[in-house]
Amino acid sequence: MTPRCAALAAGLALLAGCALAPPEPPVTLPPVAARGAPAPATAAVRGAAAAFSAPERLHGRPALAAIAVAQLEYLAVELPSGRWGEVGMVSPSLLAARQEVRGALGISSGADPQAVIDSLAAAATAPGGDPAAPALLPRTLFPLGGEETWRRLGRLPRLPQANAATLRALRHWEFGPEEPFDISSLRRF
Question: What are the tens digits of pLDDT across the range 8-40?
């Protein structure tokens, strides 16, 4: 087998392994992150898209940023699972966005999504507000500690993957799958 054929075979095997990976267990969205829409997924896709498209509006408001991150965590599990129908390229976009956000906030890359969602929602609704919230972010999920994670949530940077993925998910959710693009329409006459 030539090196080129071996590389092609390895690439196809890798793609097949990704396609056959079982979906993550279902997650639930706490009521605080599911407000204002008829279904939790609708609230999550609308809320996350609004938050990540203009994160500067969340500066100084870590509780709202925590809800947006919980919504993204929810979407990154639920939409790719197939439980909401076929979402095409939205799936890998959301998974990349989740990794980008986890990296920016110092969330463990292998953390259980439901535990992250629950911790962020609990912190966002902590009795006593912002001073009490960091104590609800366990170091097992947030290795930088609750204080640093809460500080980062209060200064959420522009995250291009999260912005693009949540806007793509919103477009898909509201209008359906993207139509195929016919490149022949670009030909010169």
Answer: 444 444 444 445 456 678 899 999 999 888 889
φ/ψ bin of 41: left (φ > 0), alpha (ψ from -120 to 50), beta (otherwise): alpha
Token pair, residue 99, equals: 């990794």
Q: What share of the chain is helix, strand, coil (3-state, %, to 5)?
A: 60, 0, 40
Q: How many CB atoms lie within 10 A of CB 110?
A: 7
What is the C-alpha separation between 132 and 124, in angstroms, rounded? 10
Contacts 24+ apart (CB under 8 A), 153-156: 153/58, 153/62, 153/65, 153/66, 153/69, 153/105, 154/58, 154/59, 154/60, 154/61, 154/62, 154/65, 155/59, 156/51, 156/55, 156/58, 156/59, 156/65, 156/68, 156/104
If we measure between CA atoms, which residue out of 156, 155, 150, 127 comes closest to residue 137? 150
User: Which residue in this structure is represented by tokens 């979906």?
Assistant: 23
Q: What is the pLDDT of residues 107-126, one digit of tens each?
A: 999 999 999 999 999 999 99
Give the DSSP per-residue string, 133-160. Answer: GGGGS-TTT-TT-HHHHHHHHHTPPP-H
DSSP class of 32: G
